[in-house]
Structures are given as structure tokens and as C-alpha cells.
Amino acid sequence: MTIHTVTTTPFTDQKPGTSGLRKAVTDFQKPNYLENFIQSIFDSLEGIQGQTLVLGGDGRYYNRQAIQIILKMASANGIGRILVGCNGIFSTPAASGVIRKHKALGGIILSASHNPGGPDGDFGVKYNVANGGPAPEKVTEAIFERTKTITEYKILEAADINLDRPASFKLGAMDIEVMDSVEPYVELMQTLFDFEKIKGLLSSGGFRMSMDSLHAVTGPYAHALFEKHLGAPSGTVLNGTPLEDFGGGHPDPNLVYAHDLVEILFGDNAPDFGAASDGDGDRNMILGRKFFVTPSDSLAVLTANAKLVPGYKNGLAGVARSMPTSAAVDQVAKKLGIDCYETPTGWKFFGNLLDADKATLCGEESFGTGSNHIREKDGLWAVLFWLNILAVRGESVEQIVRDHWKTYGRNYYCRHDYEAVESGPANELMERLRSMTVELKGKQYGDYEVAYSDDFSYTDPVDGSVSQKQGIRIGFTDGSRIVFRLSGTGTKGATLRVYIESYEPDASQHNIETQEALKPLIKLADEIAKIKEFTGRDEPTVIT
Ligand code: VG1
Ligand code: CO
């Protein structure tokens, strides 16, 4: 087998975003595009010779082809061993767990997460480091720098590897282990949750759940967990076969894109519990019968009830949430007397806090929750956490959340996304807000007085690294807040995200519909940022 050194020229657009490099499939199919990025990863890592890497993806279109290319490049670059998921499948959380378990140098996860797949959809490459978490900014910056100067890449000339079943291979000098990625994940979950108790709940006949995998990566994991190990009847998992184009859907677990599940949970004879996960399995949506749990509330409820779950029975070291996530969990942390950290958007910012044992649970408003069991957010983990709480408390999802609001107050919360707007005006909108932050302070808008306004900057309490320009915050004296930022995961134009929150301690005011409760702030957001004027849109594309 021959190693070829192929001459190449840089692409200028290989800057990783919130979660890896995400582009249209057609971009990744351009000659040398994938190869350049992968070689840049190898070039910017130290001491890769003989090391172990984990490799797999969410099963979307181009996953298999990309894996074959990466295997040959890894061998040519001197990697010692690769653990690759059977059929090329590795959910993001499962990959994180295996990197940790096998003390690998890191992993390459192929996913564009919730973005649509298929030949006209998106593809993505994420690099995770030895702790199992997304590469921190200093690593992604080094990779990006390398993409700008790359002149050649190395690849082995060899036949493709059969990924259909677990087996061991040799590719040049490199060992390949094609492994089942489901069982190690199930085993990890068994160390955290009371499987007997959950089994009692799911097989009692009195409690019904629906889990929608949206034809994305969690299908095999969900079948194994809920139907095989936890005794739920077959049919509990919907859309459980991963498809290259996710059946044409948008594998994003929210009220808009998981509408089939929403209809089931809000329909006649609805089950007691519903959940969905995203393309790569790191996000989750939790529903009760005719009841939606906001991700921010979900994090707060898990925090408040953590001691009911075996893996967390000794309490939590602390919690962390991304800046735009509502402050619901802050209320719980205050009561528990634990620290609550506020980080920029993206799971990579939780890594240091988890490693240093400053935080045990973390969460984002974008349907992501996770803990120190791995270094990624984990969709099915959140579902099991909820089931464990439900099994112990014997109450409905709605009862648990309403009871929570009574104790801690309710954080009304929503996010408005203006997807695929023109980049120019979207950047101008943000620049304008940025220039206004100083003058906004103390300004009165009807009943609202601006208490503070800034462009969020984060100093990592562990390594002191600083991340600036993480979103414009406008906080009001009554505790309500509006946040504006541009998405770092989109592939078409720009996506403006507007996050709106208000706090209501009075339980008699907890029954207002969310958009209604937030109406004055929604109006104010447009007034301050001139959203309609800059985007040319009358309303958001997605409301979550
Ligand atoms: C979005 C979410 C963010 C999440 C990121 C990756 O980023 O807002 O909370 O961490 O996606 O999630 P952005 O920059 O588009 O707002 V995933 O499931 O796509 O890895
Ligand atoms: Co995801």
C-alpha cells in the first residue's frame, strides 16, 4: 500500500463555528475540501503518532464516504488505532463516552447536528479532544490557521473497509476496530440511572411514552435502551431507523420540527411522556401529556431533583448554563447553595468547568442538557433522567413543572429565530446594537428600565481564556432580559436569534401563554433592534 502526498491549495472558508465546520454537502464534495480540513486537524495536533482516535457520525448523507477518506488519511498520518462505529454510526454523546473510556487522543465526529441532510443538505466535521469534549477555541483556531496555509495532505491508497459489522482490520500500519457503539453507551447509562425503577414504570402498562428519533442517529440507542433494556413495548420508539436524509425532515427536536410527536402528545389519548432528539443525538425535547417543558426549565427541574437519581444522589458540585439560557436554574442553584456559571453559547465552554468539578450539570436553551458523565450534551441521558424522576415521584410531567414554578417562580422564555436572512444587514443590526450598549443603560421603555446592556464576554475561571462578542444582552430592572446573537451553525446567510425572558414569582400568574406573557418584550426587541427593518421579515421563521 502506497502513501500519497497530494498537493493542495487552501480554502478560505474553513473556520469552525459554534460546533465544528458545517457546510453544504456540495462544499464538502469539492475536490480536497474534506481532505484539507482533516489534514489541518492532524497538522495542528501534537504527538499523534501511534495514538488512538474515535471516528463516526450521525449517519447522514456522505458519512460513509467521508469515513473511508478519513481512515486512509489517518493511517497515512501515523495514527496507531481507530475505533469506528459500526455502519459509521456514533452519536455525539456515545463518541464522547468512548473517547473517555478508551483514553483516546480525541475523536472526529461527522455531523451537522440538527441541519437537514441529504445530497442538498448539510454535512459537518467536529474534532473532540481527550476529555471527550468539543475542541476548545485555541484548538479550533489552530486548525483554522492551518487551513489557510496548507499545501499538501497525506492519504493511503487502499481498498475501503467494511463497516457493516464489528471486526478488526489493519490499514497500512494502523489498527481499525469497527465497534458497536450502542452497548458501551447503554452500560454508561446503567451506571447513572435506576434501570429497575424505570423498567417498573415503563412496563407497568399504566404509563406510556413515545420517543421520536426523527430518523436520525439515536434510533438504535433508543431501541436498545427503552424497548430492550427497560421493557417498553415495541413501537415506543418512532422513526428509529437512521436515514441519510432523515426522511426529508429537519432533525431538530422542537415544537416546529418534531411536530408529529407534538401532535401525538397534544392529541386524544396522549401518552404520559414524549421525547425527541436531534441529528447527532445530543439534544432533547421533553413533553408531558399536553405539556411542553422549555429546555431552560428542564435544566432547572433536573437540578432540583438530581438527588433522586442514583448517579447524582450525593448532590451537585455546581451547575452551568449558556448565557442566553433562562435563569431558571440560577434560582435552584441559589436555593441549593451551589455555584451557577454563565458561559457563551456552545458546549465547548462547559469542558473546563466539568473537568475541574466546578459544575456537574450543564444546559443550553437550545434543547441541550448534560452532565459530567461525558463532555457533550446528551439527549437520551436527559430522557432517562426525566424517566427516573417520574418513576420516583409518581407524578405527571406537568405536575412536576408546575410544582417547580411554585417553589422557584416561573421564567417565561422563548427564542425567535430569523433564519437565512441576508448576512450584510444582519451584521449591521448587530453592529448597531453593539454601538448602542453604553447609551442604553438607564433608558426607559414604557414600564421597562434598562439595568444593564453589554456584549457578553466570558473569562474562563479555569484557564483564564477570554471569549468576546458572545451576544448583546439588554437586562431590565424587573429581571427580564432580551439577548441578540447570530448563529454560528447555519450554512445559508445569517440566522438572527432573539432570546426573550421574564421572571414571574407570583404563582397566580403562571398560567399565561408564553408568547402572550412576553408580548411587550417581544415588541420592545423589535423596537430597539429594528429587526423588521434590517431583516425584511415580519415574523420569525421558528419560535421555540
Ligand atoms: C446552536 C445552539 C447552541 C448549540 C449549537 C450546537 O448554535 O444555539 O446552543 O450548542 O447549536 O448544537 P448557534 O450558534 O447556531 O446558536 V448541535 O446539537 O448543532 O451540536
Ligand atoms: Co446536535
Offer a concise description of the structure.
By secondary structure, this protein is of the alpha/beta class. The chain contains 18 helices and 27 strands. The strands form six sheets. Strands 2-6-5-3-4-9-8 form a seven-stranded mixed β-sheet, with helices on both faces. The protein has a seven-stranded antiparallel β-sheet with strand order 20-21-24-25-26-19-27. Strands 11-10-12-13-14 form a five-stranded mixed β-sheet, with helices on both faces.
Characterize the structure shown.
The chain is of the alpha/beta class and 544 residues long. The chain has three domains: 2-181, Alpha-D-Glucose-1,6-Bisphosphate, Chain A, domain 3 (3-Layer(aba) Sandwich), CATH 3.40.120.10; 185-408, Alpha-D-Glucose-1,6-Bisphosphate, subunit A, domain 3 (Alpha-D-Glucose-1,6-Bisphosphate, Chain A, domain 3, 3-Layer(aba) Sandwich), CATH 3.40.120; 410-543, 2-Layer Sandwich (TATA-Binding Protein). It has 18 helices and 27 strands. The strands form six sheets. It has a seven-stranded mixed β-sheet, sandwiched between helices. A seven-stranded antiparallel β-sheet has the order 20-21-24-25-26-19-27. Helix 6 (182-192) crosses helix 8. It is globular, with a radius of gyration of 23 Å. It starts with a strand and ends with a strand. The model has no long low-confidence stretch (mean pLDDT 95). It binds alpha-D-glucose-1-phosphate-6-vanadate (VG1) and cobalt (II) ion.
